[in-house]
């Protein structure tokens, strides 16, 4: 992460946008602010950004639709910033591919900590990719998980699309096969100590992973639930 990491803020409230921009600029970030999805697309077409701060309640195309579209076309970290604080909104945002979630009103220091955490993870992934394939591929039950390129390949050879959060969770399970991991441990392994908004989303992510890698998601054999404890990847995992 560079000292002047560039952030694209998509926020239709001019006052809130100015407050966020001023605070982040004072903390060595370069911030560009736009008010809707169309302006965001124009900004992204002109230059490269390292992270998007995205409000949900936007005029025109809503933030969840924008988040889904961004995730499908770009490997760009996304933090949702919104007044909608219900758990269902957090989970939907996560399912759409958000890397983190901050509910208004928030402490600016919390927002700053989450931005730095997401950028650190993105930077680490980039460094892994630059390092090449060595020690970056997991295999189990015919599945191939390429950590460098963040690609998941099914036993049949087809690529399986995953959100950033789904991939990070699968990565964590691969690193600790045949070991029970609690929800708190999975949160810390995937999002670190600032992962508050994701506390109730692990079950949702597990369910989505099962739909993608299990033969029968209702009777899972790979990702096992250990009652009152957590989850376990029940497979022989090799790393190369």
UniProtKB/TrEMBL annotation:
Identify the Pfam families for this entry: Response_reg, Trans_reg_C
Every OmpR/PhoB-type domain range: 135-235
Quote the cellular component terms of the Gene Ontology held in the record.
Answer: cytosol; protein-DNA complex
* All residue ranges annotated as the Response regulatory domain in the record: 6-119
Enumerate the PROSITE patterns for this protein. OMPR_PHOB, RESPONSE_REGULATORY
What is the scientific name of the source organism?
A: Methylocystis heyeri
Give start and end residues of each DNA-binding region. Answer: 135-235
This chain's protein is named Regulatory protein VirG
For the modification 4-aspartylphosphate, the affected residues are 55
| Residue runs in coiled coils | none
Report the subcellular localization: Cytoplasm
Keywords annotated in UniProt? Activator, Cytoplasm, DNA-binding, Phosphoprotein, Transcription, Transcription regulation, Two-component regulatory system
Q: Does the keyword Chloroplast apply?
A: no
GO MF, any single term? phosphorelay response regulator activity
Task: Tell whether Transcription regulation is among the UniProt keywords.
Answer: yes
């Amino acid at each position: 992460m560079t000292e002047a990491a560039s952030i694209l803020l998509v926020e239709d409230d001019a006052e809130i946008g100015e407050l966020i921009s001023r605070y982040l600029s004072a903390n060595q970030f370069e911030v560009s602010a736009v008010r809707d999805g169309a302006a965001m697309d124009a900004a992204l077409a002109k230059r490269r950004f390292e992270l998007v701060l995205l409000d949900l309640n936007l005029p025109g195309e809503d933030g969840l639709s924008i988040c889904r579209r961004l995730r499908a076309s770009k490997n760009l970290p996304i933090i949702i910033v919104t007044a909608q604080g219900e758990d269902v909104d957090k989970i939907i945002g996560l399912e759409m591919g958000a890397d983190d979630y901050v509910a208004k009103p928030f402490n600016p220091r919390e927002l700053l900590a989450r931005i730095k955490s997401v950028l650190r993870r993105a930077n680490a992934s980039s460094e892994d990719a630059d390092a090449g394939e060595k020690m970056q591929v997991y295999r189990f039950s015919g599945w191939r998980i390429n950590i460098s390129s963040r690609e998941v390949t099914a036993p049949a050879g087809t690529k399986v699309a995953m959100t950033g959060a789904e991939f990070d969770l699968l990565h964590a399970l691969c690193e600790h096969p045949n070991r029970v991991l609690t929800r708190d441990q999975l949160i810390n392994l995937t999002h670190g100590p600032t992962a508050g908004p994701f506390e109730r989303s692990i079950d949702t992510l597990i369910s989505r992973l099962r739909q993608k890698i299990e033969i029968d998601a209702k009777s899972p054999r790979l990702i096992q639930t250990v009652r009152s404890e957590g989850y376990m990847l029940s497979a022989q995992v090799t790393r190369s």
